[in-house]
Protein: Outer membrane protein assembly factor BamB
Amino acid sequence: MGRSSPIPTAGDDVLIRLIAFLGLMILCSDVTADENWTRFRGGDATGVVADTPGLPSSWNKTENVAWVADVPGQGWGSPVVVGDRVFVTSVVADEANIAPSAGLYLGEGVRDPAKGIHHWMVFCFDLKSGDKLWEHESFTGRPVVPRHPKSSYAAETPATDGERLFVLFGDLGLFCYSIDGKLLWKQMIEPKKTNMDYGAAASPVVHGDQVFVVYDNKEDSWIASFDTQTGQQKWRTPRDEVMSWATPFVWENDLRTEIVVPGQRVNRGYSLDGNELWRFDGDMSVLVIPSPFAAHGLCYLASGYVGDAHRPTFAIRPGATGNIAPDGDFKNSEFIAWYQPQCSPYNTSQIVYGDYLYTVYDQGFMTCNHALTGEDVYGKRRFSPKGSFTASPWAHDGKVYCLSEDGLTYVIKAGPEFEILQTNPLQELCIATPSVAGGNLLIRTLTKVYCITEKN
Structure:
């Protein structure tokens, strides 16, 4: 009498169940972060991977290779991983067209659409064995827009929420599949003329029940949100942009969640319902390709076309509103933590690993800046043997990995001194950024996907 009963009440039981459920969700989120690769440059868009014993630092065509899968056609999207399933996209042409090659293209795109019937394909492979589990043909027909001679009609990386796969073929449409390969819905995109006939390239991103798509072009640029379950358009916001191909970034900072999209004319942050939160003219490079990401509570924006004198990198603080740099005053802006006028790559996206920001330049150099201040750590260091780069770097276990277009991965010691620890050859054209999931490194070459892991 007068003492609390040790037997849980109905309310206590609900509370216990809730606590257990939340604990399970936290555990699952940690597992998901390590075992899945849900979008371009991973779930957090940084390219930084938790240290994993199964990830080797050396490989070639046979060493530490678990399996190799042939992928027909051409595509430059990264592999996406959900559980034991690997997804890649490709476009297979019935007729031969211009083959891509390494190096810079400083001119116009291919002025006419590619010849022949094309097949826009999605492939699913088993992560453990490399066996093909299913394939689906999203669309069949003739291309109606040209493309960059180095690019592909499957340039974008898919995105996933763990239940559905969102496949964007930029000038064609957005297709949603179940993980088992059933087409759930599609939203066709009206193709537009792009700058220099380069075509689309920005990848989709998912947040909650929305999948976001950016399509900058010369006629009718926009950012839009589609319902992940139904495909219905939730909102669409016009963009006064032409020469931007960067994948948008959903920035979950301490103050709010927003969508960050760089642009050649204006860099912008949008709310999750498509309203502009902030903007500034960063005097960006004439072509904006690197994708934004966050580290140390800052969001990093960059553009660095090789022919431009101004190739800026900006580190943005959260909470911005309105025009954050009127009259181009970057150094005195409350929301620009730091700015470097000549610190950006052309095609690759930068990476922050530890306290350092690493930039891999297309022409075969790397630089390092302090991620919190922008101060120079070391200037341009040339890769040896020389190479050119389109794929973005990734990092883990105290090393930064850089994949050249010739299929050679340079393993760089992380820190204030540039040191090449070793090189790993695959000897085939590589444009796609690699993916890492469940102790496996997935490298996509022109014709294959390699699964690389430490062999026991």
Q: What stands out?
A: Residues 35-452 form a domain with the Methylamine Dehydrogenase; Chain H fold (CATH 2.130.10.10). The longest strand covers residues 132-141. DSSP finds one helix and 33 strands in the chain.
